[in-house]
Amino acid sequence: MSVKRYLFLALLLALPCTAGAQEPGLRTRLEARGLPADLITEVEAIAADATAQGIPAGPLANKAIEGWAKRVPSPRIAAVVRQYAAHMIQARAAVRSGGMAEPSAHVITAATQAMASGIDGGQVEATVRAAPGPEAAGPGLNVATALHAQGISSEQSVGAVVEAWRRGEQITSILDMPSLARAMQAQGMSPAQVGQRMMQGMGGLQGGQHGRPAGVPPPEGHGKGQQGQRRP
């Protein structure tokens, strides 16, 4: 996915919405996907309890639909949806501790995904607190999650985003961090080295079309002829 498309989707998802209102037509949506009536009733009950605590119903419905599409038994789907609701409640608490009194559905979902990836509640709180505005918190959490998925420690993943915001980096630069990290690892840097460099404020890619990060050496043998001699 291009950076521009990623930015567009992230900002679109970050638009404010009311997390506490149950999604209209939840039953209709689940029925349209072929879920059985007893499972739909159970998912509705879980969603009702969750929305009463400020949790959006949409992601819970998505979990149920995903499980049914994979032919998971109904009791297991209900258990997963209930567990996911509990995780979302924990994630919302972490976001609120970060200073966001009424987090949007997107921010809650992003925090839930971050915590599921191994980023802890305190790190979610730090990310939200450092965000320059409510609309930046969700994309920032998504970037931290993506960095952590590349093998970078949760501390460095969150630290890279937080430090970038403290330096006044633009959202485009922050959204480009995962692709920058991949490029750096492709050049032979370890995840720990990448995380350290990004926390220190390493700039964007240099080298134009070659896409080599600043200060990262070219692959061994780059620019040499077949006999190991440098080309003129």
Described by the principal axes of the CA atoms, the overall outline is: elongated
For the CA atoms, what is the radius of gyration? 21 Å
Strand percentage lies at under 5%
**Count of individual domains:** 2
Helix fraction, binned, reads: 55-70%
Q: How many strand elements?
A: 2
Alpha carbon gap, first and last residue:
37 Å
Query: Strands of the largest sheet, in order across it?
Result: 1-2
Q: Quick one: biggest sheet?
A: 2 strands, antiparallel
H-E string: HHHHHHHHHHHHEE
Q: Give the count of helical stretches.
A: 12
Mean pLDDT: 82
Structural class estimated from helices and strands:
mainly alpha
Poorly predicted runs are: 1-23, 204-232
Overview of this protein structure:
The protein is an all-alpha fold and about 230 residues long. The protein has 2 domains: about 1-15 and about 120-185 and about 195-200, no CATH class; about 20-105. The protein contains 12 helices and 2 strands; from the N terminus they run H-H-H-H-H-H-H-H-H-H-H-H-E-E. It has a two-stranded antiparallel sheet. Mean pLDDT is about 80; it is low at about 1-25 and about 205-230.
What would a concise description of this structure say?
The chain has helices at residues 3-13, 26-32, 37-51, 58-69, 74-97, 105-117, 121-130, 134-149, 154-166, 171-175, 177-186, 191-199; strands at residues 205-206, 212-213. With 232 residues, it is an all-alpha fold.
